[in-house]
Structures are given as C-alpha cells and as structure tokens.
Amino acid sequence: MRSKDILWPTDFSDTASHALSYAVEMANFYKVGLRILHVVDQPIADASYQLLIVTPEELAQSMEKAAAESMHRLLAQLNTDLRVETVIRRGDPVEVIVNEAETADIGMIVLASHGRSGISHFLNTNVSEEIANRATCPVLVVK
Questions:
Q1: Dist. CA 111–CA 44, nearest whole Å
Q2: Per-residue 3-state assignment (H helix, E strand, C coil) for 50-91
Q3: Which chain positions lie within coiled-coil regions (predicted)?
Q4: Which of 33, 55, 96, 98: CA 20 to 30 A from 42?
Q5: With contact defined as beta carbons under 8 Å apart, do 131 and 19 qualify?
Q6: On the CB side of 95, how many CA atoms lie within 13 Å of its CA?
Q7: Per DSSP, what are the bridge partners of residue 139?
C-alpha cells in the first residue's frame, strides 16, 4: 500500500470532489501518485423505442468528450506537486473501478459516498459499498 498509487474515482459531482482532498492527503502522506478515474456508462438502446437520434456509440463518444473536458477543468484547479494520471473508461462503474484497482496496481481507493439512506438506499445501487466489498485493496469511503 505504501508504495502504490491512490485511485480516486469521480463522477465530477460535489460529493466526489469532497473525497478528492482525502485522496490528495493520502497520496502526499505516502508520497505516491494519484490516479483519477471517470467511468462513462455504456448507453444502451432498444430499437423498438426509436427514441435516440444518435447511436449509442455516438452518445458514448459525446459523453467521453464531456468527461475529458471536465477532467481538464479539474486538473487546472488541482494545485499539487503529486504525479497525477487521468483515465476515462467505459462500462459499469463498479466493474471498471475494481478492475482498474487490480490492473493498475493501486494501493488504496478513495471515493465518496452519496449518503443515501432509507428507501433510497434500497432502490439505488450503492456503488461505494459494492466497491468496498469487492476490492482487494483498502477502500476509504468519504461521507
């Protein structure tokens, strides 16, 4: 853990941004790099609905372009001497984040919890909880 990078998955929300300060602090403490990951959900379409004017591939490319622009803005605001890598991937967020941690030899994942409770917790997938359960490295969930 002490020699491996910190992974900070982000959806560019204010909640995710709150966890960034923890990720930077951990990376500075261990003198390791920071890997920033954004996952673009693969859009799906049913031809019977005929609602999409663009193909799912075109929509995914547009989402990736918007994510890249958000990543550039984020990096411009990030004031650190850390080695920072950015990655944008497609797929299921839980699968991609867990896979990224394993294949990129990550020492710790630092991510935000959206803090849902009650019925909302049961109706929505709790990404941070599922990552914490499936990851093989330590996971810091920030509220």
A1: 26
A2: CCCCCCHHHHHHHHHHHHHHHHHHHHHHCCCCCCEEEEEEEC
A3: none
A4: 33
A5: no
A6: 7
A7: 109
- Are 87 and 40 spatial neighbours (Cβ–Cβ below 8 Å)? no
Q: Is 0.90 topped by the overall pTM?
A: no
Q: Given the DSSP bridges, would you call strands 34-40 and 139-142 parallel, antiparallel or unpaired? A: unpaired
Distances (CA, A) of 46 to 43, 49, 51, 58, 142: 10, 6, 9, 15, 37
Q: pLDDT of 2-40, one tens digit each?
A: 789 999 999 998 889 999 999 999 999 999 999 999 999
Question: Looking at the DSSP assignment, which residues form a beta bridge with residue 141?
Answer: 111
Q: Which amino acid is at 111?
A: L
Q: Please give the span between the terminal C-alpha atoms of the chain, in angstroms, as a whole number.
A: 22
Q: What is the CATH number of domain 6-142?
A: 3.40.50.620
Residue boundaries of the structural domains of the chain: 6-142
